[in-house]
Amino acid sequence: MSPSKFALVASLLLASSPIAYGQTFQRLGTCPTFGCVFPPDQADFLAGAYFDVRLEVHAPVNGSEATGNPNPNPNFTFTIAKDGQRGRPTNAATLFGVREPAVETWQFGWYEDLFAQDAKTKSLVNVAGKAYRRVSLNEPGTYTATLTYNNGQKTEARWFVRDIPSRRRAKNVLLFIGDGMTTNMITAARLIAHKSVNGKYQTKMALDSFPILGHQMTHSVDSYITDSANSATALYTGHKSTVNALGVYADSSPDPFDDPKVETIAELFQRYTGGGVGIVSTAFIADATPAAMTAHTRLRALYGQVVNSFLYGQTNWTWTDWKGPDVLFGGGAEQFYPNKNSFQGQDYYKLFAQEGYQVVNNATSLASIDTAKRALGIFSVSNMAKWLDRNVYPANLRGKKSAPNGDGGDALDQPGLKEMTLKGLEVLTKRHRKNGWLMMSEAASIDKMMHVLDYERALGELLELDDTVKAAMQYLEKTGQADDTLVIVTADHGHGFDVAGSVDTKYFDAQSGDRKKRGAVGIYQESGLSQYTVADPSRGADANLVYSSGANFPANWDPRYTLSQGVMQFPDHKEDYRVKKGGPRVPAVNITGFPSGEYFASYVDAPTGILINGTLPVSADQGVHSLTDVPVFSKGPCQELFGGVYGNIDVFYGMAQCLGLSRPGKNGARPPNHGGPPSY
Ligand SMILES: *[C@@H]1O[C@H](CO)[C@@H](O)[C@H](O)[C@H]1NC(C)=O
Ligand SMILES: *[C@@H]1O[C@H](CO)[C@@H](O)[C@H](O)[C@H]1NC(C)=O
Ligand SMILES: *[C@@H]1O[C@H](CO)[C@@H](O)[C@H](O)[C@H]1NC(C)=O
Ligand SMILES: *[C@@H]1O[C@H](CO)[C@@H](O)[C@H](O)[C@H]1NC(C)=O
Ligand SMILES: *[C@@H]1O[C@H](CO)[C@@H](O)[C@H](O)[C@H]1NC(C)=O
Ligand SMILES: *[C@@H]1O[C@H](CO)[C@@H](O)[C@H](O)[C@H]1NC(C)=O
Ligand SMILES: [Zn+2]
Fold first, then answer.
1. Atom of ligand 1 at shortest distance to CA of 116?
2. What secondary structure letter does DSSP report for 518?
3. What span, in angstroms and rounded, lies between the C-alpha atoms of 241 and 485?
4. CA atoms of 488 and 176, how far apart (whole Å)
5. Any idea of the CA torsion for 91, 94, 96, 102, to the nearest 10 degrees?
6. How confident is the model at residue 320 (pLDDT cuts 50, 70, 90)?
7. Does residue 61 contact residue 124 with C-beta atoms inside 8 Å?
8. 172-496+626-658 homologous superfamily
9. Cβ atoms of residues 237 and 440 within 8 Å
10. Mean of pLDDT values over 44-68
C-alpha cells in the first residue's frame, strides 16, 4: 500500500474509532474500540481446551470518548469464519453447538490518566455484553471472529488454533518456577555458592547442567510489565492475561467470577488422563503462582475462593470436572483454619480431610505421610520461612506467630522447598505411576525477597531451588522416571537485579558520610574474588555466621567483602551491603506526620548504611518487577521445544504437546471428558 493510501485508511479508521490506543490507562485492556471480543485478537488456542467467550459493546456516558449516545445497542452479532475452504462466517453459537446467550448490561468507570485519578474523576461507560460458556475450537487453523455492533461497526479478532500433534511423549511434567528469577540472579547465586580457581568454577549449579536453554518474553496481554497472576496464567493456559487475573481474561463487569475463563494445564491434564497433580510453593498457597493452577477470577486477592478452588474447582466454573490435587504443600494457613480469611469462615483442614486428604502441619509429620494417599501440607501462616532463616539464623523463626493452626504460636518445624517437592514426588509416583503426573513447584521467595531488596535471602531461595532441582532429578533417576519426565525450570518474570562489584564493609563502616562510604565499592579489578565460598576464621567465633551444608550454599554469609548489588528502581532506603541477620528486610516505612501511604527509608534497616533516595512513586515500599526476558531450562522428552526465544504462552503449548493434551477434532463436537485409557 502506498503511503498516501495508508494515510487515507488510517484517518478513516481514526474517524470511526475512539482514541484509546497506546495509553497506560485503558478503558479495558485489549479493547481500544467500543466493541470487545475476549479472547482478543491474536489469541492462541489448544485444540479441544475449554474457554469462555465474552463480548462487550461500550457506550461511554462522559469523558473524552463520549459520543452523545450513552445507550449501548444490544443488537450485536458474533460470527466466526475459519480460513480455507469452509471460510464462510458462521453464527458463533451454531459453530460452538451452544444456545445463544442472553444479553447482560452493566456500567463501569475508569480513569483516563493520572490527572483524572488525582481529581477522582472517572469516565463512565454503559455496557451490553454476552458470554458463551465452556466452548472449544477443535479444528486447527486460523479463525476470524467478528463482532458486528452499532449498526455495522466491526471488531475482528484473529484466533489461532495451533496444529499440535496429539501423540503423548512424556508421562510426567515437573515444572519449577523460580518466581522473579533472572539470569543475573543465577549468576550471582553461582558466585556466592561455588568455588572458582583462577576464573574457573570447580562446581556448577544444577541448572547449568540442563541441555536446553531458552528465553521467554513475559509481557501481559495489555501491559509490558507483568505480575505473577497473569504470567502464571500464560504459563498454565496458553493465554496471556491482565495484572491480577488468574485463569481468565479480565472483563469490565462487576462480578470478579464471571470473567471469560480459560482451561489450565492442571484441569486439562486431569480431565484427559486422570493423572495426578501436585502444587508446591514456599508462598502462602493462595498466592498467584500456585493459585493459577485452578482458580478463575480476575482478582488474585480473593484468597479464600482460591483455596476453595484447589479443592472443588472454581465453583462457578461448573464444567471442569476438577477432582482436587494429589499434593498441595505450602504456607498460608490463614485460608485454612476457620477465620475471617478462609472462604465463608470455613475450616478447610476439615473440608480437605473430608475429601480423603491426610493433613500435615510440620516437617516431621510430612516426612512420614502415607504416600498412597492424597496430602495437604500447610506449614505456616502467610509465606513460609526463608532458607536463610531456617538454616543460618533460626532464631528469626521465633515470635512470628505463624503456627499453622492459627493459635499464635511459632512454626518452628517448617520443611523447605526440597522436602516438600521430594515428598510430593513420592506421592505422585506412588499414586500415578501408570497415568502420569504433573507437578508445579515454586520457589516463591526469590521474588518476595527481591521485592524488599533482601538480596542475600533471595539468592538463598534461589540456591535452595537449585538444590531442589538437583535432588528431584536424582529422585527421577533412582525411580526410573527420568526418561519419561520433562523437567522445566523457569520464572514468571524478573526484577532488575545485578551485581557491579564488591564492597569492603570494614572500610565502609570506618568512613563518615555517605559520599566517603561509597569509596568502599570495588569495581572492575577491585571487585576481587568471592569471599562467600570460604569460611572467614576472623569472624567464625559466632557459629551462626558460618553455614556449610556441603550442598553448594555459601560457607559464609557475612564476609568482609560483600557484593555491590541492587535493583534498578526502588523506594527510599538505606544500604549497608550486608546480610540482614535479624530476618527479612523492611527497607521503607511510613512515618508519623506524613500520609500513611507515603514511604521513607527505614533507619533501623541499615543504621550505618548510606541513604539512597527512591526512584519509584513514594507510595512504593518495595521494588518492582521488570521487563527482562527470563530463562527456561529444559531436560527430558520434548526438551527441544524449549530452545530459542518465544512468548511465555509457548511454555504451555510445549508442555501440552509433550503430554499429548492437544485433541484435534470437529468444531461443535465436545471432546470426551476422559480420553479413554491413558495414551501413554
Ligand atoms: C462522569 O459522570 C459521573 C457521574 O455524574 C461523574 O462522577 C464523573 O466525574 C464524570 N466523569 C467525567 C470524566 O466527567
Ligand atoms: C434491536 O432489535 C429489536 C428487534 O429487532 C428491535 O425491536 C430494537 O428496536 C432494536 N434495538 C436497537 C437499539 O436497535
Ligand atoms: C460464585 O459467584 C458468586 C457471584 O457470581 C459469588 O458470590 C461466589 O462467591 C462465587 N463462589 C465461589 C466459590 O467463588
Ligand atoms: C508435628 O505435628 C504432629 C501432628 O500434629 C504433632 O504431634 C507434633 O508434635 C508436631 N511436631 C512438632 C515438632 O511441632
Ligand atoms: C502506616 O500504614 C499502615 C497501613 O496503612 C497504618 O496502619 C499505619 O497507621 C501507618 N503508620 C503511620 C505512621 O502513618
Ligand atoms: C534525598 O532526597 C531529599 C529530598 O527528598 C534531599 O533533601 C536529599 O538531599 C536527597 N539525598 C540524597 C543522598 O540524594
Ligand atoms: Zn513479585
1. 13
2. G
3. 28
4. 6
5. 80
6. low
7. yes
8. Alkaline Phosphatase, subunit A (3.40.720.10)
9. no
10. 96
Best probe residue, ligand 5, of 586, 596, 619 (max atoms within 8 Å of C-beta): 596
For 205, phi then psi, to 5°, come to -70, 155
Please enumerate in sequence order all residues whose Cβ is within 8 A of that of 495, keeping only pairs 6 or more positions apart, or say none: 180, 182, 185, 447, 450, 451, 567, 623, 624, 625, 626
CB 270 within 8 A of CB 75: no
Q: Is 37 helix (H, G, I), strand (E, B) or coil?
A: strand
pLDDT digits 0-9 by tens, 260-288? 999 999 999 999 999 999 999 999 999 99
CA distances from residue 55 to 161, 249, 255, 605 in whole angstroms, order as listed: 19, 11, 15, 50
Q: Is the pLDDT of residue 31 over 70?
A: yes
Average pLDDT over residues 19-23: 58
- The answer for residues whose C-beta is within 8 angstroms of residue 9's C-beta and 6 or more apart is 1
| pLDDT tens-place string over residues 230-258 | 999 999 999 999 999 999 999 999 999 99
Residue 646 pairs in a beta bridge with: 216
Distance CA 547, CA 391 (A): 8
Cβ < 5 A residues, ion ligand 7: 447
Q: Which of 124, 125, 126 to mutate to test the pocket of ligand 1 (most atoms within 8 A of CB)?
A: 124
Q: How many Å lie between the centroid of ligand 1 and the Cα of residue 123?
A: 6
C-alpha cell at 358: 491426610
Q: Which residues are catalytic?
A: 228
Nearest protein Cα to ligand 2, atom 9: 75
Contacts of 93 (CB under 8 A, 6+ apart): 99, 100, 101, 132
Q: Which residues are annotated as a binding site for Mg(2+)?
A: 179, 287, 289, 442
Nearest CA to 379 among 304, 290, 281, 295? Answer: 281
Number of the ligand closest to the Cα of 575: 6
Q: Tell me, in angstroms, the distance from the centre of ligand 7 to residue 155's CA.
A: 34
Nearest-CA residue for ligand 6 atom 6 is 613
Within 6 A (CB) of ligand 2 lie: 73, 75
Give the mean pLDDT of the chain. Answer: 92
| Nearest Cα residue to atom 14 of ligand 5 | 596
Mean pLDDT of the 21-45 span: 92
* All cell numbers assigned to 62: 462522559
pTM over 0.85: yes
5-162 and 172-496+626-658 have identical folds: no
Determine the straight-line distance between the first and last CA of the chain, rounded to whole angstroms.
51
The pLDDT of residue 538: 60
pLDDT (0 to 100) of residue 1: 31
d(CA 675, CA 653): 19
**Least confident stretch, 201-210, 411-420, 424-433, 647-656:** 201-210
Please name the residue whose Cα sits nearest to atom 10 of ligand 3. Answer: 316
Q: Tens digits of per-residue pLDDT, 604-628?
A: 999 999 999 999 999 999 999 999 9
CATH superfamily of 5-162: Immunoglobulins (2.60.40.10)
Alpha-carbon gap, residue 660 to 46, rounded angstroms: 11
pLDDT at 5 over 60: no
Domain boundaries, the chain: 5-162, 172-496+626-658, 501-612
